[in-house]
Amino acid sequence: MDDDNPYREPAIPPTSPRQPEPDPPAKLAWYDQVWLALPFGLVAVGGAIGGMCGGAAWALNQKVFRATKHAVLRYVLTGLISVAAVIAYWILAMVFLAMLRRNA
């Protein structure tokens, strides 16, 4: 049998250094989870628009909270994101209501 056949699997696979798998993100304490999930309160107030703003703020809060090393800055930034979500909800709700009133 000819060993130069390009369609045949090699007997010994080429060795490559294995890349270490990244560590899974550390679990957050319950009070951190509650703090990050505060924007979900917009769902109760604003339905679908509130859920959209609250869900986006929660996802952004998760990323910022895990990426920021300074403890106080974590809470300040995620608090500002939550406030921005409330403002975005209010603006979107006003636009939606204005559109409804125009068509009525």
Provide a compact summary of the structure.
The chain has 3 helices and no strands. The chain is an all-alpha fold.
The radius of gyration computed from the alpha-carbon positions, rounded to a whole number of angstroms, is: 25 Å
What is the β-strand count?
Answer: 0
β content, as a range? under 5%
**From the structure provided, what is the oligomeric state, counting identical versus distinct chains?**
single chain
The DSSP helix count reads 3
Largest sheet: none
Q: Mean pLDDT across all residues, rounded?
A: 86
Q: What's the overall geometry? A: elongated
Query: How many domains would you count in the coordinates?
Result: 1
- Provide the helix percentage: 55-70%
Helices and strands, in order, run as HHH
- For the record, give the distance between the C-alpha atoms at the N and C termini, rounded to a whole number: 83 Å
Structural class: mainly alpha
Which regions have little confidence, pLDDT < 50, spanning 5+ residues? none
